[in-house]
Design brief:
Largest sheet: 6 strands, antiparallel
Distance between the termini: 37 Å
Length: 284
């Protein structure tokens, strides 16, 4: 058995699967991918539209029964196990990598995915079902046009519109953390949004919350799948990448804007997380 969320773009293509690098993958034939009894951890955001049949899954130890016209959303770090699967079960599945979700820069993404962790299953009908089927069809066409110079931008807007549409109409967030870990994580994320440019240490946010850095990081990891220091780095890198695409800003200006002591410190940070320096990234 292979965890399909960990294959490379070349492996996907060898299977005849449509994909955008390793970031967006569209799977149409999924019956054979679910091996009974094996528990695996999903490394992508997985959005599945069940087209026929029915199945039973455990997601983070909670049982879900899915059937035709159900939309099931599994997010990063959730543990999934198949319990039962009808012979005619099929689903159309979109996989999106962590890096791509961060690239989308979704508004209120923390609250959105927190709610999806709680309520991953929605039954669709009428316009909602038609809208999702249409979005998947448009995505399929866009993924198949590899010679389109605007392919990446087209897919970006298709997916972003799709996520916003279904998050707003079908998965409203009630804004109320249900556990202590969720409460601490939500407060950390709110502080980070306001102070990430000038404060890069977990200790700063822990002090503001009157908690230890270790406890804050553990709470954040239990909810998001990442320790707090990685969440801070992700936020900085998202800002840095976007700023580097703006030719009007110098690297020195970006360094100052993001609270680094100098351009060298920013360059070292960027290279650690991106694999290339800011200058090479801008040229590429």
């Amino acid at each position: 058995f292979m965890d399909v969320t960990r294959l490379s773009a070349n492996q996907y293509r060898s299977m005849g699967t449509l994909c955008l690098d390793d970031d967006v993958v569209l799977l149409d034939k999924t019956h054979s991918l679910f091996d009974r009894g094996i528990t695996y951890e999903v490394d992508h955001v997985c959005v599945a539209l069940v087209t026929c049949g029915e199945a039973d899954f455990l997601i983070d130890s909670v049982a879900y029964h899915v059937q035709a016209n159900d939309m099931l959303v599994i997010i990063q770090q959730q543990r999934v196990q198949r319990l039962g699967l009808s012979k005619d079960f099929e689903a159309r599945v979109v996989l999106m990598s962590r890096a791509y979700i961060e690239y989308l820069n979704l508004k209120n993404s923390y609250q959105m995915f927190l709610n999806l962790r709680r309520e991953p299953l929605v039954h669709l009908e009428g316009e909602s079902l038609t809208s999702l089927e249409t979005a998947l069809g448009v995505l399929r066409v866009s993924l198949s046009h590899n010679n389109n110079p605007y392919q990446k931008q087209t897919i970006y807007y298709i997916i972003k519109a799709y996520i916003y549409g279904f998050a707003y109409y079908l998965l409203p967030y009630n804004g109320q953390p249900q556990t202590r870990e969720e409460e601490v994580s939500a407060r950390f994320m709110a502080l980070l949004e306001s102070h990430y440019r000038e404060e890069h240490s977990v200790g700063y946010y822990a002090d503001r919350l009157h908690l230890t850095a270790r406890y804050v990081s553990a709470c954040v990891k239990s909810v998001t799948g990442k320790p707090a220091i990685e969440i801070i780095a992700d936020k900085l890198m998202l800002h840095a990448r976007k700023s580097l695409q703006n030719e009007d800003k110098t690297i020195s200006q970006i360094s100052y804007e993001l609270g680094f002591s100098n351009q060298s410190a920013f360059g070292k940070f960027f290279r650690t997380h991106e694999g290339v320096g800011p200058r090479e990234y801008r040229k590429g």
